[in-house]
Design a protein that fits this description.
The complex is a heterodimer.
Chain A: H1 2-14, H2 21-45, E1 79-80, E2 89-90, E3 98-104, H3 111-124, H4 128-131, E4 134-140, H5 148-158, E5 163-165, H6 170-177, E6 184-188, E7 194-199, E8 202-205, E9 211-215, H7 221-237
Parallel strand pairs in A: 3-4, 4-5
Antiparallel strand pairs in A: 1-2, 3-8, 6-7, 8-9
Chain B: H1 6-29, E1 41-42, E2 52-59, E3 67-74, E4 80-86, E5 92-102, E6 128-133, E7 137-139, E8 144-147, E9 152-159, E10 168-175, E11 179-188
Parallel strand pairs in B: 2-11
Antiparallel strand pairs in B: 1-11, 2-3, 3-8, 3-9, 4-7, 4-10, 5-6, 5-9, 10-11
The chains are: A alpha/beta, B mainly beta.
């Protein structure tokens, strides 16, 4: 019997009683895929920022880690100049693509670079053919300190093709952030230090200019990458 | 799969078992760009007496910009408090202990005592986030306080040189009781 030849090996590896060997072998391959993928995401997410989405990774492949606001906010009329003076850049993504928009500032040592780094890794995890459908734009909410070259360097350090968007017109900045639901505040405290607070979400904008998903700070790059794949798939099939 | 000859099937299973065993390890190993386990070092030897620091790393940065140092601070025999962090003056104009938090939680106190492992920052929702300087971080006896993205970090202001992946920075921690402990941060482009 084939079973008799193979079972000892299985017993050695799996320490299973002989009577269960056949059942184990049949179930094993599909189970392997699940267990292995859980192992990978577990490792990668283990040392992520606090409040990460490790707990949400147990859903099926279609369960998003990000969330959507209903109805999807439209930002199709929002456009901002690049920090190098070129542009303006309108928010709608390339056809069947996504534009990831973040409102931050360069004097931000923790949250902003962590987010940029996670986005870079999330995009790098996509299949090669899908990476160029995702563009990244960071909008400075502290233009007084973020001069053009500084902001451009900051963004290009993470994304050589990324858009560093900046305006000195506070009304225009306000008008650009509101449709996203993003807020920010730049104040100087009694000690003369600049205190900045800002909505630290990443917004995914589709080719129609709708915010189709957003991720809170701390969402793992693996989770964001998975969401991006599903969003890109959905976008390609619906058009 | 149902048409696969049984022997081949079993071979695949065995091969799969090997992959299974190696898989998670390989995944962890290939993800070390985020994992700072081997990058930091500390000159404090006796973990049982004085506090120590490990897994020290900093983000890349450019001259005039900012960066952050992350690390694990392990408490010694007695409870202590981290009251300051310094880096050489040719690295940054200043180094401050900061805590990233939701905007709503900020400003209520100028001294945010770290009460052990837990960070008080809970991310999520669409709340605004910011950070504030903290005067001290309590380090419980034998406990570990992790400085990590989205929580405690050492902000480096006005970098005096570019910080490139692989560079190292001497970091001096000052504790309320134990005095100074030094460690070395490795710069990472993560």
């Amino acid at each position: 019997m084939v079973d008799d030849q193979v079972t000892p090996g299985l017993r050695h590896v799996r320490s299973r009683p002989t009577t269960r060997a056949t059942l184990v072998s049949v179930l094993f391959l599909p189970a392997l895929v699940v267990v292995a993928s859980l192992g990978v995401s577990g490792c990668g997410g283990g040392d992520k920022a606090s409040g990460g989405s490790a707990g949400t990774s147990q859903g099926s492949d279609d369960t998003p880690s990000g969330y959507t606001v209903v109805p999807a906010p439209s930002v199709k009329d929002v456009s901002l100049p690049r920090a190098d003076g070129s542009g303006p850049v309108a928010m709608p993504a390339v056809p069947n693509g996504l534009r990831l928009v973040y409102f931050g500032y360069t004097s931000c040592p923790d949250v902003c670079p962590t987010t940029m780094s996670d986005l870079r890794r999330a995009i790098a995890k996509l299949p090669a053919g899908e990476r160029d459908k995702v563009q990244v734009a960071m909008v400075s909410i502290d233009p007084a300190r973020d001069n053009g070259p500084r902001l451009t360097d900051y963004v290009h350090n993470f994304f050589p093709e990324g858009d560093a968007l900046r305006t000195d017109d506070q009304a225009a900045l306000k008008a650009a952030t509101s449709p996203f639901g993003a807020q920010y505040s730049v104040k100087t405290n009694a000690k003369g230090e600049v205190e900045v607070t800002h909505t630290a979400e990443v917004y995914a904008v589709d080719d129609k200019g709708n915010v189709v998903m957003q991720w809170p700070f701390g969402t793992s790059y693996q989770a964001i990458s998975k969401d991006l794949r599903n969003l890109l798939k959905g976008s390609a099939s619906s058009s | 799969m149902s048409t696969t000859p049984k022997l081949l099937h079993r071979s695949l299973v065995l091969a799969g078992a090997l992959v299974l065993a190696a898989g998670p390890l390989a995944a962890c190993g290939s993800d070390t760009d985020k994992d700072a386990k081997s990058s930091g070092s500390t000159t404090t030897v006796a973990s049982s007496s004085a506090p120590s620091v490990s897994d020290v790393w900093a983000r890349t940065g450019t001259t005039g910009g900012t960066s952050a140092i992350y690390m694990k601070v392990v408490g010694g025999k007695d409870a202590d408090a981290l009251t300051g962090v310094e880096v050489p003056s040719d690295v940054a104009a200043s180094a401050q202990i900061h805590e990233t938090m939701k905007a709503g939680d900020m400003g209520s106190s100028t001294t945010m005592g770290g009460s052990g492992m837990g960070s008080s920052t809970t991310m999520g929702g669409s709340g605004m986030m910011g950070m504030q300087e903290v005067a001290k971080v309590d380090i419980p006896a034998g406990g570990t306080v992790e400085f990590k993205p989205g929580g405690y970090h050492v902000m480096l202001n006005d970098l005096k040189k570019d910080l490139k992946a692989g560079d190292t920075i001497k970091v001096t921690l000052t504790f309320d009781k134990a005095g100074k402990v030094t460690g070395t941060a490795t710069v990472k482009d993560v």
